[in-house]
Amino acid sequence: MTLGTSWAIDWTRACAAVIAEHRVELITLDRDIGDGDHGENMDRGFSAVVGKLDDLASDATPSDVLKLVATTLISTVGGASGPLFGTAFLKASVAIGSEPQLDSAAVVALLRAARDGIVLRGKAETGDKTMIDAWTPAVDAAADAQAAGEDEAAVLAAAATAAERGAEATEPLIARKGRASYLGERAIGHRDPGAQSTALLLRAAASVAAGNGEAHSSDANTSGTES
Ligand code: ADP
Ligand code: MG
Q1: Max CA-CA distance within the chain?
Q2: DSSP structural state of residue 215
Q3: Which chain regions cross the lipid bilayer (predicted)?
Q4: How confident is the model at residue 213 (pLDDT cuts 50, 70, 90)?
Q5: How high is the pLDDT of residue 214?
Q6: What does the radius of gyration of the chain's CA atoms come to, in whole angstroms?
Q7: Does ligand 1 lie within 6 Å of residue 167's CB atom?
Q8: C-alpha 205 – ligand 1 centre gap (Å)
């Protein structure tokens, strides 16, 4: 089994659905240690992406889908997270090239390029209490799963579980990047909103790959026929 354009499209839809569902939770997390707009920012961005999916060409590759996500997030999401997630999806789209189907190695390359793009842009290190604290364990777990011979869905599931643990592990940290860094010790005890949204996006990727995500369809590009 490999992951094609319909996986990328369904993942995008699943991201929009899960972010909409967790909008208030992300707002609350960002209200605790930031300015309270993270849920709003992400919801606006992914809703805009869904509105553009029908513009994809019928022969669009997974890379084309990720590029559409990237450009839309960059142009519609304000704050720190728009350019950071936008860069992540852009670098991921470049990393997977024009391959119509992604194998487990390509999935690891996608995740690694996304993480590296965020680091390049935001300069956060592990333990700075940012989305990187979800992305880096996710990349490491994905690479381990791939090296152990796991398939794409299992690689994504490993990434999602590691991202969820990474997000939770931001709670005791002091922030060294972003708005939360102004709070010093007052950030302790609060989960980083960007790490939480990262975990949601990666769980969505895994769920769709496993066949139980939002709007799963057959492995042909159905962008022209879906409403
Ligand atoms: P803003 O902070 O501008 O209001 P958001 O609330 O949408 O933007 O996003 C905040 C999230 O962005 C944080 O929870 C954190 O995960 C992430 N973030 C902020 N700065 C950085 C950075 N330099 N590197 C990586 N992630 C960052
Ligand atoms: Mg904010």
Answers
A1: 52
A2: T
A3: none
A4: low
A5: 53
A6: 16
A7: no
A8: 21
**Residue among 25, 81, 197 whose CB has most ligand 1 atoms within 8 A, to mutate:** 81
Q: How many CB atoms lie within 10 A of CB 140?
A: 18
The H-or-E segment that residue 63 falls in is helix 62-76
The residue-averaged pLDDT of 173-186 equals: 93
**CA–CA distance, 192 with 174 (Å, rounded to integer):** 10
Distance between terminal CA atoms of the chain? 26
Contact present, 208 and 14 (Cβ < 8 Å): yes
In words, the CATH class of domain 5-217 is mainly alpha
Structure tokens at 108: 């690891």
Domain ranges of the chain: 5-217
What's the CA gap between 47 and 122, in Å, rounded?
A: 24
- Per the structure block, which two tokens stand in for 220? 């042909």
81 Cβ closer than 6 Å to some ligand 1 atom: yes
Across the range 193-220, mean pLDDT stands at 83
CB atoms within 10 A of CB 96: 20
Q: What is the mean pLDDT of the chain?
A: 93
Q: What is the pLDDT of residue 205?
A: 98
